[in-house]
């Protein structure tokens, strides 16, 4: 069990310290759930990670909620007051600082008269006793200063909560809160209490945390525990309601059967309402179920998933599920560096919390396909979360891919940022496209077995790449502009009447280009027409159209810029919206963003054409300039480790034949930005929150540590120098085990700046004894193909610089792309 410790363990200092993980045998015991839970005060971000109880990809994420914002995931590791333990949460998101979900909290009380117990949210809130928060995968506990202990464990849609009251308590109660989600956004609902069955059913409508829509959710609490040792019996029941947010006292009306109903109101109400139950026993075991269909279904879910109220079974099953997921990347924990191991397994854990599996809980349409929520947002997750699933977990990944396709099937477009079951805001392109394109490239030959209809997948891509939804701020893209100009013009009034936020023109252009590349890749893989391949291939070079060769910054020439419909460029300072922007700019989605880039600068986005980096190198003036431009980008401070557009850039040296420089840069990024403290990523200079972003940061760190970077559109992964001496990847579709061993592994390289001569450079790679054509990349099929991959490392820096990729560069569309054989696209399109 991992208890919350206040002192961050800084990775660079840990090599000398002794840690407990070395003796652990199970990967679940290595997970530190509190990484990334620091308070996000002072404009920074603690990661917004969720440390409560959940199974992999769970719908239910049960944990405690603090009363101070920011609190995106409910929990914050500081000593804020606690308002309850609630049933659903997001993981590592930005958006509304009050947080999403946090629905139907319970709150245990002692020593009050039934009719005057402090049931209101301000009256009841309390602090936790020091050093009592603890969590392991599948379990969370804390203890209030008054001695009441809270524990939780869960299944996909249900679970158990246990309150243990101090022996000296004179009375013991549980508040069931109908109205307070984290966003305080209650718009109506009902609570129904039935003493004889011991059941409380709830239905509430709340606002989503990222977007403007609302959603309705249901829960069921069972208080008649049949566990005989528990000897738990309900003594009194009643309900309460008040129209005031901060009512000092709210009177409880005793009743054995009672139902309160609050009609829908389109603005959030201040209503406080719920039920109160009193017990005779010092332990109260509560079973719960959640549903998006009905409160009866919520009760049925509890009955189905927790039939015996068996705590050990529920928790054991959850641990086993996590053990299965975590063991798909296995290392010998007795051999590897303990901090690296803790970071690796904590990251793998967080990378599998979302998307959330709402299969059989889709309130909007009937479908035989899976339904998933918390695509929050695909812009965050397409780069690392999905590629990680592609390596180990095609069975789960194919279900999520099917949910994306089903979104298109029923709503016309691939979903982008589904949050609380409804469409949220679109940030850039439609980044479900890279996810579907990547899937078909990697698993087309297994699609039937995985029940993914590839014709539908392809049509979803084509429709999203060509049709324009009425409001492309919710889903899809502004294809009216894209198809007419081949870029997104600035200051252009869309004559079609389609609406959306007309900002982020330059970065949307770059992302639309990548999206179309995926249609091309899918067309190639699925043997679609040459015309499709060429049409989408040509469009994917659109990033060149926003390249202004005349802009100079810090001595470097040529930058991505906004462009008017008449072809003239609109200038934005290339450092605008960078971490060192000298002038305040608005850099989000709003109409006050007059820079043209989303949450990042032209300096950074000018490196964004992941499918044709060779083109960018040409545009920038060749390999040497590209390399010094990258060096300058890092030394000047344009890089922001916690932000998605920065993710791939430490690896970009690979494309200029200098993988040795990537290796050093990645070490530097890891050891300067990540540690096992509650802050997760310690980034004091953040201008944009470095949240865990639905596991995106976690998956990124896992890749960095395994010495791999996924290019989610290519059959290759970039290869670097792993931080462990060996790891074994299990693919849960093929049943293969591939062991990657680092020959000459050198622990002294596990620092921000490896000492001169330490063995950090990749010298050669063999795949099952056969020399790999490159030291820059590995074929995806080899990584999941089973057998032995050996990465030989050495410490000779000048030999490494000389060697480069060793003969074969990572692919770029401009130099051949994938599966084309002969076609190479001109960079002047
Ligand atoms: C929080 O503060 C209270 C006093 O207000 C103290 O008793 C308690 O130990 C603190 N808890 C933690 C987790 O620091
Ligand atoms: C919220 O819910 C109500 C009732 O279900 C519905 O009429 C309304 O359209 C929903 N959306 C918004 C944005 O209020
Ligand atoms: C509820 O039921 C209990 C037990 O049957 C009874 O003693 C109590 O008076 C009832 N209370 C109310 C408010 O009806
Ligand atoms: C609670 O009440 C039930 C029913 O009267 C009884 O069986 C049980 O022993 C009581 N438990 C305690 C701890 O008093
Ligand atoms: C490790 O996991 C296995 C299977 O899930 C379980 O049987 C065993 O008790 C666990 N060991 C430890 C040390 O937790
Ligand atoms: C999602 O839930 C369904 C229904 O229980 C189950 O069959 C499926 O395996 C789950 N998938 C994941 C990824 O959790
Ligand atoms: C596409 O064509 C190639 C070559 O004819 C064939 O090997 C492959 O199976 C085809 N793929 C699909 C998905 O039909
Ligand atoms: C793609 O671009 C090339 C080069 O400009 C051009 O020759 C070809 O006709 C284009 N193909 C399609 C389908 O647009
Ligand atoms: C760049 O500047 C040159 C020289 O002033 C000019 O001829 C050219 O049109 C400019 N290019 C663009 C794309 O603005
Ligand atoms: C293009 O349009 C912009 C914005 O209306 C204008 O400032 C610029 O002068 C135009 N350029 C040309 C060459 O007409
Ligand atoms: C840049 O490096 C790449 C990758 O090794 C190589 O293919 C290319 O020829 C180099 N370009 C120049 C202009 O040297
Ligand atoms: C395309 O991908 C296949 C593996 O799927 C690889 O064998 C082939 O060499 C690639 N072609 C190019 C031109 O990169």
Automatic annotation (TrEMBL):
<feature type="compositionally biased region" description="Polar residues">
    <location>
        <begin position="809"/>
        <end position="829"/>
    </location>
</feature>
<dbReference type="GO" id="GO:0005829">
    <property type="term" value="C:cytosol"/>
</dbReference>
<keyword id="KW-0732">Signal</keyword>
<feature type="domain" description="Glycosyl hydrolase family 92 N-terminal">
    <location>
        <begin position="30"/>
        <end position="291"/>
    </location>
</feature>
<dbReference type="InterPro" id="IPR041371">
    <property type="entry name" value="GH92_N"/>
</dbReference>
<dbReference type="InterPro" id="IPR014718">
    <property type="entry name" value="GH-type_carb-bd"/>
</dbReference>
<protein>
    <submittedName>
        <fullName>Glycosyl hydrolase family 92-domain-containing protein</fullName>
    </submittedName>
</protein>
<dbReference type="InterPro" id="IPR005887">
    <property type="entry name" value="GH92_a_mannosidase_put"/>
</dbReference>
<dbReference type="InterPro" id="IPR050883">
    <property type="entry name" value="PNGase"/>
</dbReference>
<dbReference type="GO" id="GO:0000224">
    <property type="term" value="F:peptide-N4-(N-acetyl-beta-glucosaminyl)asparagine amidase activity"/>
</dbReference>
<dbReference type="GO" id="GO:0030246">
    <property type="term" value="F:carbohydrate binding"/>
</dbReference>
<dbReference type="Pfam" id="PF17678">
    <property type="entry name" value="Glyco_hydro_92N"/>
</dbReference>
<feature type="signal peptide">
    <location>
        <begin position="1"/>
        <end position="23"/>
    </location>
</feature>
<dbReference type="GO" id="GO:0005634">
    <property type="term" value="C:nucleus"/>
</dbReference>
<dbReference type="Pfam" id="PF07971">
    <property type="entry name" value="Glyco_hydro_92"/>
</dbReference>
<keyword id="KW-0378">Hydrolase</keyword>
<feature type="domain" description="Glycosyl hydrolase family 92">
    <location>
        <begin position="297"/>
        <end position="793"/>
    </location>
</feature>
<dbReference type="InterPro" id="IPR008928">
    <property type="entry name" value="6-hairpin_glycosidase_sf"/>
</dbReference>
<feature type="region of interest" description="Disordered">
    <location>
        <begin position="801"/>
        <end position="829"/>
    </location>
</feature>
<dbReference type="GO" id="GO:0006516">
    <property type="term" value="P:glycoprotein catabolic process"/>
</dbReference>
<dbReference type="GO" id="GO:0005975">
    <property type="term" value="P:carbohydrate metabolic process"/>
</dbReference>
<dbReference type="InterPro" id="IPR012939">
    <property type="entry name" value="Glyco_hydro_92"/>
</dbReference>
